[in-house]
Amino acid sequence: MEYAIAIVAGAVLGLGAAWVYQWMKIGSVRERSDEILERARQETERIQEEAREAARIESRKIRDRAEKELEKERRSLGKEDRALRRRQKDVERNEVQISKKEQSIQEIENDLVRRNKSISEMQKEAKEIFTRKREELERISGLDEAEAKEQLLKIFEEELSDEFGGQVLQSMERFQEEITERSRELLVGTMQRCAADHTADNVVSTIDIPSDDMKGRVIGREGRNIRAFERLTGIDVVVDDTPGVIVVSGFDSVRREIARRAMEKLILDGRIHPARIEEIVNSTREEMDQLIYETGKKVAYENNVHGLKDKEFVHLGRLQYRTSHGQSVLEHLVEVSQLCGLMAGELKLDASLARRCGLLHDIGKAVDHESEGTHAKVGADFARRCDHKKVVVNAIAAHHGEVGPTSVYAVLVQIANEVSRLRPGSRRESLEGFVSRMEEMEEMAVEFEGVDMAHAIQAGRELRVVVDAGKVNDKQAAKICRDIGKTIESRFSYPGEVRVTLLRESRIVEYAR
Questions:
Q1: CB under 8 Å to 482, separation ≥6 — which residues?
Q2: Contact 435, 422 (CB under 8 A)
Q3: Contact assessment for residue 481 and residue 493, using Cβ atoms and an 8 Å cutoff
Q4: Tens of pLDDT, residues 275-332
């Protein structure tokens, strides 16, 4: 029994202890919960306070920025307001000035109206006076206004025409007296005794090839052969679709001739590769140097010009491959040398010295790329370095009038140079252009009053004009001839000069039966 009571008492005590433990545990949880809630409440309040403080700071910043923007706008508006006031004042001043100017313009217009009215009255009065005077003149002379004007113009025209024609005749007579018959015979005879053909060189040379397969060999793999050839010669090689030919092109005629000869040798040899190309080009260049030297030496000896130096022979030979307006420079030198020699012989001068001057007068064209100045100056310097006489140096320097001639030989070179340069056929001109120029020149001459016919002769160097002797007198003929010459100068382009010869004659035919 006691044992049971003890068990019950123990159970009761255990339950009581468990209940007490649970109650104490609940109380501890409640206390922790209250602490957590308190901390949460305090953290919330802190966050809210920080948010309110941040909001106050941001609000203050926004207000400061707004105040600054407002202040800036206020200052800008102040400046614009001041500028607007200044513009308004300027406008007011301009309005005052415009008003004054309008008033001044109105006064000027009023004055002009008064003056126009006065001028109109004066014109009316002058017209009445002129009418009365004209009527009085017509009554005295018995001619109306048109008849009187026509007679006055005719008188003035006849007087001026006669006076001008007389002056032209006097001038022509004076010039003709200065040109002696001996000089004309000398030039004409010299030109007849000396003639030369001229061939024109181009900037390209064509080379015939046996077949179009050779073009590929000339070009080489990836173009190595053609590049090597162009590099060694300095000349462009054109290989296109034209059958049977290859073209070498370059402005240096000597290099182009070396390239042409080298290419012909390569095609004939058949072995075309960079090493062989270099070998052929170098050998061809040596051959050309020797050929140029021999050519210059031969030309000098054929023209009886002795004592020249080797470098002069070289320069003369190089001019064989130089052209000027389609005219070979070397052949031009030979022609001028012969002309100078013939004219010097006719004038009893030293023909050998004259030929030397003529042969060397364009020697500067072979060296002008190496020195500065015109070819005449360069040639004179070259001749001076070669120890030529002063007369030869001056003839070279003066043949284009850049310096004054100091001897008659310089004048002979000038004359021979112009004769060779301007004679018919010396320079290239297309047939169509030549014929067109001749026809236009003849048509222009026939348009002059009193001209019956006109013919261009001597390859366009002379225009022969025939006038009607019944309509044109001698003084009028001189004026017409002068006017035709001036018209040719202004309307036509031509080398040298054109001589205008006007013929006026009266023919009276009678038959005796």
A1: 168
A2: no
A3: no
A4: 888 888 898 888 888 888 898 888 888 888 888 888 888 888 888 887 766 667 888 8
Burial class (CB in 10 A: 0-12, 13-18, 19+), 273: middle
DSSP E strand boundaries for 197-265: 204-208, 236-238, 245-249
CA 488 to chain centre: 26
- The answer for residues whose C-beta is within 8 angstroms of residue 57's C-beta and 6 or more apart is none
Inter-residue contact 315 to 292 (CB < 8 Å): no
Terminal C-alpha separation, the chain: 216
Alpha carbons 477 and 500: distance in angstroms, whole number: 12
CA dist., res. 458 & res. 460, Å (int): 5
Supply φ then ψ for residue 254, to 5 degrees.
-70, -45
Strand order in the sheet with 245-249: 204-208, 245-249, 236-238
What percent of the chain has pLDDT above 70? 80
Q: Are 474 and 419 in contact (CB under 8 A)?
A: no
How far is 112 from 296, CA to CA, in rounded Å? Answer: 86
**CA 300/CA 373 separation, integer angstroms:** 26
Four-CA torsion 62, 65, 71, 76, nearest 10 degrees: -120
3-state SS, 396-443, equals HHCCCCCCCCCCHHHHHHHHHHHHHHHCCCCCCCCHHHHHHHHHHHHH
pLDDT tens digits along 133-176: 777 776 776 666 666 667 666 665 665 555 555 565 666 666 56
Q: Does residue 501 sit in helix, strand or coil?
A: strand
- Cα–Cα distances (Å) from 141 to 127, 138, 218, in that order, read 20, 5, 97
Q: What does the pLDDT read at residue 168?
A: 58
3-state secondary structure of 288: helix
Residue 119: partners with Cβ closer than 8 Å, 6 or more residues away: none
- Nearest residue to 444 via CA among 480, 419, 479, 469: 480
Report the pLDDT value the prediction gives residue 188, as an integer from 0 to 100.
47
Separation of alpha carbons 449 and 472, rounded Å: 9
Domains located in the chain, CATH noted? 207-299 (3.30.1370.10), 432-503 (3.30.300.30)
3-state per-residue secondary structure call for 321-384: HCEECCEEHHHHHHHHHHHHHHHHHHCCCCHHHHHHHHHHCCHHHHCCCCCCCCHHHHHHHHHH
Q: How far apart are CA 122 and CA 118, in angstroms?
A: 6
Question: Of the ranges 1-10, 95-104, 332-341, 403-412, which one carries the lowest mean pLDDT score?
Answer: 1-10
| 3-state class (DSSP) for residue 28 | helix
Each residue of 213-223: b (16+ CB within 10 Å) or e? ebbebbbbeee
Query: DSSP 3-state assignment of 450?
Result: coil
